[in-house]
TrEMBL record:
Pfam families in the record: baeRF_family3
Organism the protein comes from: Corynebacterium marinum
Name this polypeptide is given: Uncharacterized protein
InterPro entries per UniProt: Bact_RF_family3
Amino acid sequence: MNTRNAITASDPVRHDDLRDLATKPGPVVSLVLPTHRGGVETLADSQRLRPLLEEARKELAERYPDADVDSLLGPVQSLAESRRFWQEQADGLAIYAYPGGSRHFRTDRDFVPTVTVGDHPNLRPILPLFTEDQEFLLLAVGRDKVRIFEGDRATITELPLGSIPASDEDAEGVNTREPEITRQYSQTSAAHGQGPRDYNVLNGFLQQVSKGFEARFTNDRRPLILATLEEYRGALAEHITTVRVLDEIVPGSPSDLSPAQLHK
């Protein structure tokens, strides 16, 4: 089962979100207000929403007398009463309520409290937050652990390895257990270059990882970020030819890094 990790408390605003909202039938209630990421202020944030709701009710009654106000604003009222919801906020909140549903976005930008009621949503406050779907793949390779992730600006999800070896000991046809004489020699060697035999073991392992990744993600349009030691970069990138490998890497051994640390 893939584990999706939320990296920020904010929600990305994507093209599909804007297009979907723009097609919603009216009347649409658009509300924005500032929020807080923690502390006692989070309790006050829910109170700031209540007068905005009352203002929306009045405008709906005046401009759309046939609208089912309780049904339209019901989802927003539920948010106002949810203690947990207000404990998981960012710097601002945008809420859109329309017949049959609602959407909300926690944002990294605060707002002046505002209510707009009309035939279409007021998307202007969230347009500066619009971001393309900047999805990516991340291949984290250490000799003792290999992981694959997919992510975007706000999330990162670990994927199953499939046929890709999970470590150098899992690489097919690569024997990582050296005779005693070789281990004695390696103790006097450099940290990452432990003699001809170890060099061949390492390169066989890296080759299997990169070829396995290439076979699985052939022609995937998402860019690939490598998280590995600098000296492993060339061997990994050599056999990944149909996926764009970014020049910048997450340097150092990634084995002990959490998904959130890798995402940074």
